[in-house]
Amino acid sequence: MPSELISASLAIPLSLALPLIGCLAIWLLDKHPNLREAATLITGAILLVLALIIFGAVGGGEQPEHVLFEVIDGLPIAFKAEPLGAMFGLIASGLWIVNSIYSIGYMRGHGEEHQTRFFMSFAVAISAAMGVAYAANLFTLFIFYEVLTLSTFPLVTHYGDEKARKGGRIYLGVLMATSIGLLLPAIVWTYAITGTTDFTEGGIMAAHAEAVGPIAGVLLGLYAFGIGKAALMPAHPWLPNAMVAPTPVSAFLHAVAVVKAGVFSILKVAVYVFGIDFLRDTGASVPFMWIAAGSILLASAIAMHKDNLKARLAYSTVSQLSYVTLGAMLATSMGVMGGAMQIAAHALGKMTLFMCAGAIYVAHHKSLVSEMRGLGRVMPFTFGAFFLGAMSIIGLPPMAGSWPKFFLMLGAADAGQLAVIAVLMVSSILNVIYLLSIPVQAFYMNPAEDGAKPQGANGALIQWGALKEAPILCIAPPLFTATGAFLLFFFADPLYNYLSPLIGGQ
Fold this sequence. Notes:
Family: Belongs to the CPA3 antiporters (TC 2.A.63) subunit D family.
Order of helices and strands: HHEEHHHHHHHHHHHHHHHHEEHH
Pfam families: Proton_antipo_M (PF00361)
Largest sheet: 2 strands, antiparallel
Protein name: Proton-conducting transporter membrane subunit
Keywords: Cell membrane, Membrane, Transmembrane, Transmembrane helix
Domain NADH:quinone oxidoreductase/Mrp antiporter transmembrane: 135-429
Helix content: 55-70%
């Protein structure tokens, strides 16, 4: 399916429709697991090709667009690919394949039920994520944002027990309450002021500065907390409560679609609705800059005290997402660039960590950090990947996560916010404490004295001599994403150049 046969403008609607076709194929192949999973992977591969076509076209200076239809005059469901959206679409489609491979190994290795429903929900969710990525206006973004929430609800409540139902209620309640109660009024208010919801270079607020006036901060606050998927405190409880889901879902929520859709939307609103210059000149973003900085530190402090590995990683995500919000609210070109690069770096690093957590659970039924002493000796590949993913999240070279922090610090310096630089430095130290301690104790400490030595879980592992690793489909994906986080470090310059239109080509 080369780009000569399919234009980038056609690739946009196809990238939304294809996962839905895949969803139908998954349902029809319910009784044939191998064919069902093959349908998922084939759909993912074709979707990645479409995303690459769009990514390449945008990199060549095009802005492919497609109007689906107009709901009412001036409010079309329309799509337009720009650098940030093209990057998000490529990340989501590429990591969906990785997550699907991992899901096959995890779901089979752990003997999970309702696998067809599981993969169908994934397909609908990735279609919604692509809609968010390529949305040309706030109206379109809101529609697909809501579809993403609803389609991931069955994934969060997959187990169907009381714990899952409670987590699902919080997940759906917080995200729907913030989007309908805050985000939707913000979009309506924006339309009332400007007469449009289109994403526009330089923002649409500058031309209506007098009409916006002192309410700019209030309107920005509606967006900041209305986009609940960005998990800015205190709109974050849905995220740790969603950890009742199977680990592949956690990886999907944190790296592929949901939280990335949140911070992506925050950045789009800051750049294409308000505009960096408008935010800087009005100072409207300063209070939210400090809320994001507080979220970074507070979530890290909570993560340090979580013994459950997925809970620790969940609060780590709350902290890391706030880096993107912080970059947007700094209202400087380097801050925006740092936030944009954080989307890519965090996706690879955090997906690695969650997939490693799942591999540990599949092979050894261990979910507490305190139970992992000595486990690295029998799971060196898993904990080696975890170590690399942790390095990237911390921001240590030569891992991709080091560049976002570098640009965020430059952005803070440009804004004259030296205290923000201190926040980023303290955050990195806290990251070291609550993340690197895990592989250190896994490799260098003796197993716990209570006799909780590494044991296989119902044969759901492979053994190579003294090694007891999870099935290969649970090992290969985190090794792949960890390698990706390493390689991305060396491709920071091409990524910077690709995203430079966000900051006026600077």
